Each structure stands twice: as structure tokens, then as C-alpha cells.
């Protein structure tokens, strides 16, 4: 390969990277445009009494059994993590006492 061919290949790769960056930019812009809500009144509708009532209908209220199970899980994890941190603190204190730093 002579110098001209290398230069041409380098320019070709540079052009391809430029086109790829441009395509990715367009793709990002299109993805962003899809996320924008085109109905600005939708937000106002949500803050009306009618909108609030409709939203309350969509809420999943837990049953007593679900609430009890979830509360039990939270309490169990709290107890387990409390034991873990207590044991970790005791081990660190033991190590520091063995090193004479306490």
C-alpha cells in the first residue's frame, strides 16, 4: 500500500465514523422526541378531581394478608441486618483490642 492509498483509506474510515456519529445522533433525537408528551393538557387533567378519582381507581390497595406478609419481611430483614451489623462491630472491636488500639 502506498501513501495515497493509506490516506484514502484513512479518509474513508473518517467519513464512515462521521456518518455513524450522525446516525446515532439522529437516533437519540428520535428516541427523545418519542418520550415527549404532545398533549400538554394531560397534566392539567390529572390534577382535576375527575383525574384524581380515575387515578385512585388504578391504585392497588394491599389486602390484610399482603400487608402482614410484607410487614413480616421488613421486620425479618431489619432483625437480620441488625444482627449482622452488631456482629461486624463486635469483630472489629475484637481486632482493635487485639492490636492494642482500644
TrEMBL record:
InterPro entries associated with the record: SecE_bac, SecE_sf, Translocase_SecE/Sec61-g
GO cellular component, one term: plasma membrane
Topological category with respect to the lipid bilayer: Single-pass membrane protein
Primary site of residence: membrane
Domain of life: Bacteria
Ranges of compositional bias, category Basic and acidic residues: 1-19
Name listed for the protein in its UniProt record: Protein translocase subunit SecE
